[in-house]
Design a protein that fits this description.
Low-confidence stretches: none
Shape: elongated
Number of domains: 4
Structural class: alpha+beta
Strand content: 35-45%
Number of strands: 24
Distance between the termini: 91 Å
Mean pLDDT: 88
Helix content: 10-25%
Largest sheet: 6 strands, mixed
Oligomer: single chain
């Protein structure tokens, strides 16, 4: 037997030091210690309808590389004493359902460097996520009704309102209930049926913030589950028949809505420097006389302190106009044709946004 009497020796084979771990020599340690334990087959589930993946009971949208990382983290067991672990992965697709994952792993245990290679098979099974199950059953929790006050909205205006829902969905965190069950035009507006009350309310707040108007909610009880009433939400959004920057006749004067508020709008008078808050009820009597999309930006050919001249874009004749109260000589003038006469408009913040978008 190797080793000196009274000295240290390997408890397995009797070899002389150096010894590691539980008093074993390097060859005996390497025979008995595994850096990683890798299963031969690992299952995972993908929704057969929409392609999202089930991860620990939750359905999420992740890339193929993220799937392999997740499976390795969940199923590969590293030695509890391993340090400085490194892992390299190479995949090979065997079929639509089977992928081989080749692992090269190295790490340090008891000051000994271990290098191992393993292969495991990722086996995909088809499933159906909660969202697709509910969509297939026409499940819904809320209906958002897009309507208008003051005038009937054009189709492109409803299209613009509807597009904001996609923007809201992009900005929100992934939620399996954030889906659209059905949608389409109805008499006097547009209806969207949604899988989530939270999504409906978030979208409603977005519409009010960016387009003004009012939101009204009503709930209908459709049953009971686990002793709790099951309700469905109807959210009615009424967009005002005017937008920020339009010209309105209100209180026998011409005004432009400058910005929305929670309960109405800040109105800016055209003929003089005056601003006032107005509620939606106050504005019920307002009439749109010129929409912002119909305004024209013109260069003044001549100007003095109060009057400027420009070429009428419809007749190409020289036309005089009273300059707005906040006129800047180097800035183009926004004009609106109201009842056959040109009116110069003062400058609002939305005018700069329109120029930037153009």
């Amino acid at each position: 037997m190797a080793g000196n009497l009274g000295g240290e020796f390997c408890l397995v084979c009797g070899a002389d030091p150096p010894l590691y771990g539980e008093r074993m020599c390097e060859p005996c340690v390497r025979k008995r210690v595994e850096l990683v334990k890798v299963p031969e087959n690992i299952p995972w589930v993908r929704c057969a309808r929409c392609g999202i993946v089930e991860i620990q009971g939750k359905w999420v949208q992740i890339s193929e590389e993220e799937i392999w990382d997740e499976l390795i983290q969940r199923h590969v067991q590293f030695h509890k004493n391993a340090e400085d672990v490194g892992l390299a992965l190479e995949t090979r697709t065997v079929s639509d359902r089977h992928t081989l994952l080749h692992l090269q792993v190295e790490g340090v245990i008891e000051d000994l460097l271990f290098k191992e290679e393993h292969t495991m098979r990722a086996r995909m099974a088809n499933g159906v996520c909660l969202t697709c199950t509910r969509r297939a059953g026409n499940y819904f929790e809320a209906t958002v009704q897009l309507r208008s006050t003051g005038r009937r909205l054009a189709e492109e205006e409803f299209t613009a309102l509807r597009a904001t829902l996609d923007k809201v969905l992009d900005e929100l965190a992934d939620d399996p209930m954030f889906f659209i069950t059905s949608e389409g035009p109805v008499t006097g507006g547009y209806d969207i049926v949604l899988g989530s009350k939270g999504l409906a309310r978030t979208w409603g707040r977005h519409l009010v913030t960016h387009y003004g108007g009012q939101v009204a909610e009503s709930n209908t009880t459709v049953g009971r589950k686990d002793g709790v009433d099951v309700t469905r939400l109807t959210l009615l959004y009424r967009k005002p028949g005017y937008d920020i920057g339009d010209v309105l006749r209100w209180r026998d004067q011409l005004w432009r809505p400058a910005t929305w508020t929670k309960d109405g709008a800040i109105m800016s008078r055209i003929d003089r420097q005056e601003r006032t808050g107005a509620s939606w009820r106050d504005l019920e009597s307002a009439n749109v006389v010129s929409q912002m999309k119909d305004h024209t930006m013109v260069d003044l050919i001549t100007q003095d302190q109060s009057v400027g001249e420009f070429l009428d874009p419809s007749t190409w004749q020289m036309t005089s106009i009273r300059l707005p109260w906040d006129h800047v000589r180097t800035r183009k003038v926004r004009v609106a044709n109201i009842e056959g006469e040109w009116l110069a408009l003062h400058h609002l913040g939305c005018d700069e946004e329109e120029v930037a978008q153009a």
